Amino acid sequence: MQAEVKWVDGFKFLGQSQSGHSIVMDGSGGATAPSPMEMVLMAAGGCSSVDVVDGLKEAGQQVTGCVAKLTTERRETAPRIFTHVNIHFEVSGINLDESAVEKVTADSLEKYCSVCLMLGKGVEMTHSWAIV
After folding, report:
1. Could you tell me which residues come within 8 angstroms of residue 11 by beta carbon, excluding any fewer than 6 positions away?
2. Contacting residues for 63 by C-beta, under 8 A, at least 6 apart
3. How many other β-carbons are positioned within 10 Å of the β-carbon of residue 124?
4. 3-class SS at 84?
5. Which residues contact 82 (CB under 8 A, 6 or more apart)?
6. Averaged pLDDT score across all residues of the chain
7. Which InterPro entries match (predicted)?
8. What predicted TM-score, i.e. pTM, was given to this entire model?
9. The CATH classification of domain 1-34, taken from the options 2.20.25.10, 2.20.25.90, 3.40.120.10, 3.30.1490.20
C-alpha cells in the first residue's frame, strides 16, 4: 500500500491514496479540513465499524445501523499523541443478540482492526457498546 501527501499552502495538505482517492488535511487544528489526528481517529472508527458490521452479519444478526463514537485523551505537550481512545458503538437492528454485539465489538479492538491494533501498541484502547 502506498500514499502520497502534497503540501498545498499554509498548513493545508492533499493526501492521495494508491486506490486513487484524495482528501484534504489541515494541520492548523482542523480549521478548513480534518486534521491529521482527526483522520487517525476516523480511520480507527471506520476500520472497527467494518469489523462490527461484518461480524454481526456473519453471526446471522440483522444489523441495520452502526455508529462509532470516538473520544480521546491527548498529551498536553508535544508530541500531542493520544493516550486513550474509547470507541462507543451504537448498534441497531432486529432482535440483536447482546452477546453477539459484545463479542464482535471486543474482537474488533483485540483481534481484527488493523488501525486499532497499531494504535494499541502505544495507546490505551477501550470500547463500549449499546443496542439502540
Report:
1. 26, 27, 28
2. 53, 56, 57, 91, 92, 93, 96
3. 12
4. strand
5. 37, 40, 41, 72, 73, 74, 119, 123
6. 96
7. KH_dom-like_a/b, OsmC/Ohr_fam, OsmC/Ohrsf
8. 0.91
9. 2.20.25.10
> What is the pLDDT at residue 30?
84
Residue 108 near residue 55, CB atoms below 8 Å: yes
Residues of the chain with pLDDT under 50: none
Residue spans of the domains in the chain: they are: 1-34, 36-131
Sign of CA dihedral 97, 100, 104, 110: positive
90, three cell numbers: 451504537
104-127, pLDDT tens digit by residue? 999 999 999 999 999 988 999 999
Domain 36-131: state its class: alpha beta
Structural contact between residues 50 and 42, judged by C-beta atoms closer than 8 angstroms: no
